[in-house]
Amino acid sequence: MAGVRDDGSGQLRCRDCGQWKAPEEFCSNSKRPNGRGSYCKPCFNIRSKASYAKRVKLQHAREVKPAREVPDGHRFCADCGSVKPLAEFPRNRADSSGYATYCKPCHNTRTRETKQRLYGGTREYHLRSRYGIGQAEFDELLAEQGGVCGVCGDPDPEHVDHDHRTGWVRGILCFNCNGGLGQFRDSPTRLARAITYLRGTTWQRVLIHPGVYQMCSPTRGRPPSPRS
């Protein structure tokens, strides 16, 4: 009988499985004198699932699918219907398991479909989520630049340049110019020093006579290596 303590052990006996267990292995029940329910947690879960299935059948005239057996370290993907290792699922802090509901291929497919449905494609989603502009604004800004990179003038640039401090979009640049500004940390001082450095270390090819050039030495730096 539940609630009966073993002689001096402090354990309780489950009414379903008949095993003696520690009180912590029973569900809490404030209505009982000992504060614990009549069934251990595993037996209580079995009873709860059976009760739920019975209610669903009576109220909705349908059967509840039996619980799926999933090995430890694995998870079931409802989209592809496969049981896969947890490593094949994306991380998700919001889920109690720490992993997403769908495996990586199914998760990626769902993500692409969502971006297509809400934004018309991955490109539009990326522009709006990262820079707050769409493809139309991108095209308009590029047209204002004459269709070329805002720094070097190369045609058909594809990268949005923005102020990393404020997030404001500044222009459309090619890959090299956009990356270069980032490497110089958007610092005019660093860029000015780089210009001064190049002027002081780069040998200049100067025309001294029609068809004749001479390499002029910079203020510092090594001479160019002779060609073999």
UniProtKB/TrEMBL annotation:
Gene3D superfamilies, alphabetized: His-Me finger endonucleases
The record's annotation in SUPFAM superfamilies points to: His-Me finger endonucleases
Q: Which InterPro entries match?
A: Endonuclease_7, Endonuclease_7_sf, His-Me_finger_sf
The protein depicted here goes by the name Recombinase
Q: Which organism is it from?
A: Micromonospora radicis
